[in-house]
Amino acid sequence: MSVGLNKSPSNGLEKLTSDEQQAKINELRRLIGPVPNKLSIYCSDASISRYLVARNWNVKKASKMLKDSLKWRLEYKPEEIRWEEVAHEAETGKIYRSTSIDKHGRTVLVMRPSRQNSKSTKGQIKYLVYCMENAILNLPPDQEQMVWLIDFEGFNLSNISVKLTRETAHVLQDHYPERLGVAILYNPPKFFEPFFTVVKPFLEPKTYNKVKFVYSDDLNSKKTMEELFDMDQLESAFGGNNGTGFNINKYAERMQEDDKRRASFWTRGNPPSAATQPALTSAPLDSINMGSDSDATDVVKTGSSPSQGLESEVEFPGQNMLETDGSKNAT
């Protein structure tokens, strides 16, 4: 059975045969046990394999990670966030989905940190989650990953927030594992590299290795962009030939149309084959198998484990994640 996760040198799939991969997927699904119907899509082969890749195919560690994500989704309800709730965060074009894709068919998220228009960490994370959900919505069926294009034009020291970076890394790495194909840091200023060294401990090695520094005056950088993108579709701000920029009114229309599709997308389900895998049946939140199945060394790189206490009681692992005053995940 096809796992549905594109094979690449960075995801480790080449180390296991397809039968070995499927066996680990089935084992992890058994460890998870029954889940509510609304979460069945996150227990598809493709989804489970992303968590396995993120934990180097360690079934116990991947199981713990996926359980935490399922509980986060039940409480945070990222698929229910709508444009009207985050439109104010989007006004400056600090994050948006490009109209173009890369040569691998991956959704492209454009990020411009210099256009930050909010001081609310909670609001910024909520908009980031909305953008991630929207990017996933627009991925082709055979693709699990996306591209980030980060434009550093106008970026200065006032735009740096270690706390927001840490919160961002926590959400993306813990709940959207292996969704990033590559992150292009376009024309970062010289002072950014020391900052990147500071935040490196917050990042998993797999994530760090997907980051590429690209400079408009460097020939090798230009080659990198040409290999990844159709230059006629790529925005001129990134060296492409497309002069169309961000327009909040047009973007709002696109997002509102996407919101109409989201309900059916996230409830469509992706049930496994009954011939080889146990059926996914409806189950209450507290019936998800939360038995201790992780190593003591399974420490999240953000500096705290969001799953503490889950073995003995049902608890939303990220319930304090977005607090700005004294959160255990705050910087």
Describe the structure.
A five-stranded mixed sheet has the order 1-2-3-4-5, with helices on both faces. The protein is of the alpha/beta class. It is globular. The chain contains ten helices and five strands; from the N terminus they run ααααββαβαβααβαα. It has two domains: 13-76 and 276-284, Helicase, Ruva Protein, domain 3; 80-264, CRAL-TRIO lipid binding domain (Phosphatidylinositol Transfer Protein Sec14p), CATH 3.40.525. Helices cover 37% and strands 9% of the residues. The model is unreliable at 1-13, 269-287 and 290-331 (pLDDT under 50). InterPro entries: CRAL-TRIO_dom, CRAL-TRIO_dom_sf, CRAL/TRIO_N_dom, CRAL/TRIO_N_dom_sf, PI_Transfer_CRAL-TRIO. It comes from Carya illinoinensis (Pecan). Residues 259-331 are annotated as: Disordered. Pfam families: CRAL_TRIO, CRAL_TRIO_N. This is CRAL-TRIO domain-containing protein.
Task: Give the topology, please.
Elements: H1 18-32, H2 45-54, H3 59-76, H4 83-90, E1 95-101, E2 107-111, H5 121-137, E3 146-151, H6 162-175, E4 180-186, H7 192-199, H8 205-208, E5 211-214, H9 219-228, H10 248-267
Parallel strand pairs: 2-3, 3-4, 4-5
Antiparallel strand pairs: 1-2
Tell me what the CATH architecture of the largest domain is. 3-Layer(aba) Sandwich
User: What count of structural domains?
Assistant: 2
The CATH topology of the largest domain is what? Answer: Phosphatidylinositol Transfer Protein Sec14p
- Average pLDDT figure: 80
The description of the largest β-sheet is: 5 strands, mixed
CATH class of the largest domain: Alpha Beta
Structure class: alpha/beta
Output the number of helix runs.
10
Strand order of the largest sheet: 1-2-3-4-5
Ranges with pLDDT <50 over ≥5 residues? 1-13, 269-287, 290-331
Radius of gyration equals 20 Å
Pfam families: CRAL_TRIO, CRAL_TRIO_N
InterPro entries: CRAL-TRIO_dom, CRAL-TRIO_dom_sf, CRAL/TRIO_N_dom, CRAL/TRIO_N_dom_sf, PI_Transfer_CRAL-TRIO
Domain CRAL-TRIO: 83-246
Protein name: CRAL-TRIO domain-containing protein
